[in-house]
């Protein structure tokens, strides 16, 4: 009998064989491979990935039920569980009077979780934890495909331990969803570059389109890199590359604009007002407040809020290194920059279609474009925005770091002998500077500083000695010490974000106070914290620890902006504009009174701002009108619209300013005070109850019960 030997296996045959079910294994073998990895991988590679994913899950999900999140988005999610109309539009209230100032995709993700599991703190944050861990796994896969398991492991660990990523993933802001969608876009793009085909490029465009429906123009920051990398490096003739990019652009426009077009085509009377816009259109929101207003700080749909309110310090090329932002994102920026330049030089003579150079260009473009956008942006800026930059830094740290290590080990001493040790030393010194800024903030940071110094010095010395003595094992130990040195600082900040209680809310940050304050014109911090984790002693209205199901509990769901925390007395304070809330407080007793006398109205009460409305929604479980949007300056409520709502019985109570505050809607205040019936505090508050946090004596508390609360009742008979 003649036995035919199998033909030699090519690279393509090897991948085809790996994709087919093994003859003896079937499903069981695939399950084993899930935990052990591909046969050609080192034995440590897959267990290391699982360990990183477990670490990411622990950091993001630690004490999950205590995470308060952003009350603004929490209220919109809750409203979406009560009304599919509110769900689709991303309305703040279930009556669909006004939307939040972002597109609704992230709200849909959280809302579906809340509809399946019920509304609560962990139900809202669980999807964020899932997408955060998914981003780590996806980045590992992308880097491993082009640079191997070592680079992928470093990249995944770096992303996991990026402090601001830990803080924002433990929150209900939309940024973790944005990051995952952009990484899905990168997945399709890199596949399209390798095979030159259209479909992966179309899927990449669609993923970025959904990212647009998560945070609008921020999703497009990576597009120049995507376009240029495909145009330059795709494995296809130039004509086909141009044609494919044109078709992908169509897919991008359709996947980005479909929700906007539908909403803007619906008559304004049949949908909620578009919060944050100047003309009640999504298009204005795209190009204004969530577009050029963020970059140039020009007048936008929310007045001064889009005119440069920064929680991350003044704009400028060094913003990422200031006392507010440094500890959040900058730890590996010096190393990533050197790794990018070095990696590209090392691939200098590779063919145009070289996959590794294409990947370096993509991750380098991702990093540089985000850096410049965030550093120079003069509009509203929160530290947590920069989590979108983290995948680029992490990928460069892994891919570029491994490339520099190979060049150091194998290249000539004259060209590459100094690059890797210098990059490690520079980043380690910067980490020491960052940790010195918070010296005295706790043992954790002191230990981290010592670890960085010792491991950094050991790494540099080990690399130099190993290189000149030809001791390969010493080089490997020195490289491991470098990883420890560069990640010890971020790990300390990340642990603080995971175990602390003040890092999430409106403005989540990681780590301790750095003394940076609110930056250039900041308007409020997170839940009881300023950027950097400082206890501020105040809370912005609407940033109360909510997230649990609304109830009639007497416990307060918030505190007054600018006032001392006073649990049990306040649920928020209206903003500017003279429409309701300025100088007044909303107590749990008031909410109980409003529910008792709602008399079939659609909305419980109308207040000035989203912050106040969201707190009341979450405590009462009822729709509440925000007449002025986030800052109180939206033109969502007009006098004619208010009269119509009152006339139809859909609204009975309006809260107006009691401190004389007047604004763009002062005509509403004047009309309400003239035609409405003032509700005295004594109608719902006993003399023994403190109604303001600033009360310092029983006398002042008692006298306040007979004063005007800024709350007015109007009925159909009160309308002209």
UniProtKB/TrEMBL annotation:
A cellular component term, taken from the record's GO annotations: plasma membrane
Biased composition (Low complexity): 497-512, 682-709
Composition bias type Polar residues, residue spans: 540-559
Keyword check for Glycosyltransferase: yes
Membrane topology designation: Multi-pass membrane protein
A GO term for molecular function: pentosyltransferase activity
Residues annotated as transmembrane: 44-62, 83-100, 120-139, 151-170, 220-238, 245-263, 329-346, 358-377, 383-405, 417-438, 444-465, 474-493
Enzyme Commission number: 2.4.-.-
Keyword entries, A-Z: Cell membrane, Glycosyltransferase, Membrane, Transferase, Transmembrane, Transmembrane helix
Domain Glycosyltransferase RgtA/B/C/D-like intervals: 101-259
Bias (Gly residues) ranges: 513-535, 571-583
Region (Disordered): 1-26, 497-583, 682-720
GO biological process: lipopolysaccharide biosynthetic process; response to iron(III) ion
Putative mannosyltransferase YkcA/B-like C-terminal domain sequence ranges: 590-675
Cellular compartments annotated: Cell membrane
Cell membrane found in the keyword field: yes
Protein name: ArnT family glycosyltransferase
Organism of this sequence: Streptomyces sp. R21
């Amino acid at each position: 009998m003649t036995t035919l030997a199998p033909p030699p296996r090519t690279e393509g045959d090897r991948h085809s064989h790996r994709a087919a079910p093994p003859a003896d294994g079937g499903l069981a073998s695939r399950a084993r491979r899930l935990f052990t990895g591909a046969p050609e991988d080192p034995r440590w590679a897959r267990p290391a990935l699982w360990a990183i994913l477990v670490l990411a899950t622990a950091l993001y999900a630690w004490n999950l039920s205590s995470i308060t999140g952003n009350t603004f988005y929490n209220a919109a999610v809750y409203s979406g569980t009560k009304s599919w109309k509110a769900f689709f539009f991303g309305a703040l209230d279930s009556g669909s009077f006004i939307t939040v100032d972002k597109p609704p995709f992230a709200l849909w993700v959280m809302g579906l979780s809340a509809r399946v599991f019920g509304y609560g703190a962990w139900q809202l944050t669980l999807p964020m934890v899932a997408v955060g861990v998914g981003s780590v796994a996806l980045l590992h896969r992308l880097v491993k495909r082009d640079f191997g398991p070592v680079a992928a492991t470093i990249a995944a660990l770096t992303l996991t331990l990026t402090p601001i990523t830990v803080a924002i993933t433990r929150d209900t802001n939309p940024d973790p969803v944005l990051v995952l969608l952009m990484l899905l876009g990168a997945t399709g793009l890199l596949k399209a570059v390798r095979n030159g085909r259209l479909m992966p490029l179309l899927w990449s465009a669609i993923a970025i389109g959904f990212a647009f429906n998560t945070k609008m123009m921020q999703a497009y920051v990576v597009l120049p890199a995507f376009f240029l990398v495909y145009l330059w490096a795709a494995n296809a003739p130039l004509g086909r590359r141009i044609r494919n990019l044109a078709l992908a652009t169509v897919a991008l426009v359709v996947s980005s604009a479909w929700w906007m077009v539908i909403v803007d085509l619906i008559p304004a009377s049949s949908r909620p007002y578009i919060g944050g816009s100047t003309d009640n259109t999504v298009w204005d929101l795209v190009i204004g407040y969530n577009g050029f207003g963020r970059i140039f700080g020009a007048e936008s749909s929310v007045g001064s809020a889009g005119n440069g309110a920064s929680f991350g310090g003044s704009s400028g090329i060094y913003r990422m290194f200031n006392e507010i932002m440094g500890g959040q994102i900058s730890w590996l920026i010096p190393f990533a920059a050197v790794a990018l330049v070095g990696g590209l030089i090392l691939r200098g003579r590779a063919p145009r279609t070289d996959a590794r150079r294409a990947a370096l260009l993509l991750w380098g473009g991702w990093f540089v474009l985000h850096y410049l956008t965030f550093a120079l942006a003069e509009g509203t800026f929160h530290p947590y925005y920069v989590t979108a930059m983290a995948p680029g830094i992490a990928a460069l740290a892994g891919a570029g770091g491994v490339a520099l290590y190979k060049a150091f080990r194998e290249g000539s001493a004259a060209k590459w002998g100094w690059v890797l040790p210098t990059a490690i030393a520079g980043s380690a010194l910067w980490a020491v500077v960052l940790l010195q800024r918070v010296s005295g903030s706790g043992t954790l940071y002191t230990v981290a500083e010592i670890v960085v110094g010792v491991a950094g010095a050991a790494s540099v010395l080990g690399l130099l000695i190993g290189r000149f003595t030809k001791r390969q094992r010493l080089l490997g130990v020195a490289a491991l010490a470098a990883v420890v040195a560069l990640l010890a600082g971020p790990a300390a900040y990340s642990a603080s974000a995971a175990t602390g209680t003040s890092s999430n809310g409106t403005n989540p940050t990681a780590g301790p106070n750095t003394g940076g304050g609110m930056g250039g014109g900041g308007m409020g911090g997170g839940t009881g914290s300023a950027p950097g984790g400082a206890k501020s002693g105040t809370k912005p209205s609407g940033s109360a620890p909510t997230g649990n199901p609304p109830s009639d509990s007497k416990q307060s769901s918030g505190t007054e902006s600018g006032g001392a925390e006073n649990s049990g007395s306040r649920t928020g304070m209206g903003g500017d504009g003279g429409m309701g809330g300025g100088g007044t407080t909303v107590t749990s007793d008031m909410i109980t009174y409003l529910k008792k006398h709602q008399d079939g109205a659609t909305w419980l009460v109308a207040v000035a701002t989203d912050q106040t409305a969201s707190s009341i929604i979450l405590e009462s479980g009822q729709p509440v009108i925000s007449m002025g949007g986030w800052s109180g300056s939206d033109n969502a409520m007009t006098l004619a619209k208010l009269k119509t709502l009152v006339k139809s019985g859909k609204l009975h109570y309006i809260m107006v300013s009691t401190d004389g505050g007047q604004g763009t809607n002062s005509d509403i205040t004047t009309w309400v005070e003239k035609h409405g019936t003032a509700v005295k505090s004594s109608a719902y508050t006993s003399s023994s109850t403190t109604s303001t946090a600033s009360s310092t004596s029983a006398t002042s508390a008692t006298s306040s019960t007979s004063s005007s609360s800024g709350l007015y009742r109007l009925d159909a008979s009160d309308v002209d």
